[in-house]
Specification:
The protein has 375 residues and is α/β, with parallel strands linked by helices. It contains 14 helices and 14 strands. The protein starts with 7 loop residues before the first strand and ends with a helix.
Amino acid sequence: MNPTKPQRIVISCGGTGGHLAPGIALAQELRSRGHECLLLVSRKAVDTTLSSKYPELRFEAAPGGAFSLHPVRFFKFLGSLLSSVRFFGRVLKREQPVAAVAFGGFTTGGLALAAALARVPLVLHEANHVPGKAIRAFRPFAAKVFAPPGSSWTGAYTPLGFPLRAEFTARPRDAARASLGLPSHGHLLVVLGGSQGARALNAWAAESAPKLAAAGWHVICLTGAGSAAEATASHPGPDGLPRLFRTVPFCHTMPELLSASDLALARSGAGTVAELRVCHVPAFLVPYPHAADNHQQANAAAAVNEGWAYSLPQENLDRLLDLILGTAPGSLRHGTWLNALRLSTDNARVQLADEVLALSPAPPGPSGFPLAALL
């Protein structure tokens, strides 16, 4: 295709923040070059919340269902998949895109099959070091597959990191705190349980806040969409000044919040890890123990190997307070944990857009068949 001529691209990226955020990042980059994108997302609240921040982009809710081997749920999945293929087929017929891109999750299958039937080149991007079911299942339909360097893929793939949204860059610490109305004194721990929150991390933060305050730490805990409204308390600090403990269901200013912080306690979803890295935030990572194929453990291990994170199993959260209090904040921001600063600064958003626009058109096939039979 001609990358200088305006093109149209369909992007499937719904279901979780980890799927939606890189889809938005790719759409931002393509739109900045004069191309048009349609982002197909799920009907979940997390998709509605995040997509509302980007009125300049086109979003459309798509059907889809999670895969299951349970007999009843499996047949429901097959029915939802057929409905999804029909939906995506109509979208491809209407949009006439030059390429389709999927970021995993239950909306991937419908787009992958519809793209194959319509002979639209398909790109798959896997954010985690252990590929998910949808990406593994529909890999044979893809013209190109991207996965993190060091991924456990057994076949060919192109190494590529997590595409971050255009606004996701590090800010100066003091300026970030001022923009959020946070005190300039004291250290800041931010607790991230992902877009859905994490009860174990939320409970640990609430229980530990007084002791952390006594050691000089403010705490901001993102409790997850759908949790209680924002609340703020304070506890005395060692210098006589109060330390905040704030709970927030959802944060619309993540680059500022991470840039303002000195340390993070977080799950290890691929998006979270990438955002911590780009904002140079050392972290204690607690992989979600029930993540599919234990992929969060693999993501955390990669961050530990890079030298800027410590991984802790959820059952060992009782050790975390002693670990944090025994770690000098200065060493976190300026010592060996900041090896992340020396990591490659390649821009996955830009590279992925380049690769999508460089795809060759699919060879012509039978006119209108078999896609027409599904519409």
